[in-house]
């Protein structure tokens, strides 16, 4: 019996020893596994914290004008830019031990397990803020063991590599508050119409309760549920020492006002411009669609709010609401190519097609300044003359005869100067010049001015029969306005990623593509469009809007059967306006032919209101200014009834004096107008200013 007892005791000891050894081995394995997990987490390093965020677009003064529209609102706010009451309310209700644990609250986990066992169901959660942030960043919200284990691993990585402040900031910027609002900034703007930094205790405590169930605790769904949840949060804040009891009572009793919409929904600024910016991000900066939509970019644009508003107002003012005619407008700073205003159509909701950048339309006579610049390069001067008369051009190479016509079939039936031909838009002079230079010359010149559309090698090219884009024509005229420097249409000055790192910044490189002297002579010739002194067999083409203008401008109008244009500039701003029907319907109504000019003139005046009046400044060398008789381009004498101060490239100025008015006695009024050297030159050229 004693032998059996000893044998049983030894057997028990043997099993106990085996159990201890197995337990130790298991514990060692668990420790090794745990250390291995930690080592692996350390080797992997910090997980990236990039999350989907709305891309924001800003005007040139920093005003928010729009954001990427994907149905979600995601903004990132620094922890210092979030109301401390909201931070404390969130910690108090979601994870009161957040600052003490290392990613897992074991007491809370044990309590949740016991509660679930008692209820035979999942009734209590135990996820910490770190775990929830890991889930928001990297995982789906399915309830599987694989997801739970992966979530735990990401939580370990977060705690090992980021501070509590970084984790809390990330969590507050990724939790969902309902109605498409992700993060406290979007939620604060949606529910209260204010920044997260400006929330009161009452607003913050109510907002902190929404993530538990946006469909249940949103104040816009049930104010009763929201207030009940708010009371729980306030009591938790008291219990955890964040606020006093009387502060909680005051906050609970406050009446809150809810907005229920995002600020950017109230009015979308410059939608055509914003579309063009997104296109530039994709095609010029080579960013993919997801990055543009959800990369959290801050895109600083060139848009000027005042000028954009002026552009839209003038289009609405002058284009008849009953008409189906469309408008494209681009305003640009000639010094750097920055686009300051853009109208791509009359109603973006009805038609998002951007006529300012996408439509290719015939420019008509607005192409002539490019042609005449080429003529200056080939020895022409403002005083060069040709006959303006009904003309049929015949060609020896089998080309069909070509008979261009002037407006209303009116001709000088005599010699006119280049300066006057431009001012009255004589088509015969233009075609003769084009053919004299060779049809390739204008094509090459158009490329020099930045036009990318294909040009047809035909006589009618001089009259603008090959299509162009509004934005490229504005850019082309910028080369005249800035003295011949190369610029390109620019919509973006700087782009930052979600961390504030600059990933693009516009550089201004100066490159001369035009001769400054010839560019200035051409600019001064274009002021003649508004100068009645150059009226001849026809009035200057800008005569109908002269009374609307109060400062010196240069420009050119243009028209075809289906298109109406006005492009012009001051030293500070270039604007191109096109009007016409999308389907190419002829402009038969007289009023429709005036839209482009009226919109241009009144927009320029409003856009430049408050800015200094600047004259076109001649280059320091290379040009000379003289008084000439505008009808023949010869040096004016005191007997000439009309004299106009005109610039020439040095060495090409006229040397012959006008003899047509000798002995006839010039008008004293005109003599005074021509001799008053103390009057600024632009006022001598443009007496109406």
Feature tags:
disordered C terminus, five-stranded antiparallel beta sheet, Beta-lactamase, elongated, 689 residues, Penicillin binding protein transpeptidase fold, 16 strands
Characterise the protein shown here.
- The chain is an alpha+beta fold and 689 residues long.
- The protein has 4 domains: 1-44; 75-265, Penicillin binding protein transpeptidase fold, CATH 1.10.3810.10; 364-375 and 384-488 and 511-607, Beta-lactamase, CATH 3.40.710; 623-685, no CATH class.
- It has 24 helices and 16 strands.
- It has helices at 2-44, 84-94, 106-119, 129-138, 145-161, 164-172, 184-192, 201-207, 214-217, 223-239, 245-253, 263-266, 271-283, 289-294, 305-318, 368-377, 418-424, 427-437, 439-448, 470-481, 516-526, 595-607, 668-675, 681-685, and strands at 56-58, 64-67, 73-74, 181-182, 298-301, 326-332, 339-343, 385-388, 414-417, 492-496, 502-505, 554-559, 563-569, 574-580, 623-628, 644-649.
- The strands form 5 sheets. A 5-stranded mixed β-sheet has the order 2-1-5-10-11, covered by helices on one side. A 5-stranded antiparallel β-sheet has the order 7-6-14-13-12, with helices on both faces.
- Strand 13 (563-569) and strand 14 (574-580) form a beta hairpin.
- Residues 119-125, 666-682 and 684-689 have low confidence and may be disordered.
- It is found in: Cell membrane.
- Residues 329-582 form the Penicillin-binding protein transpeptidase domain.
- The chain crosses the membrane at residues 20-41.
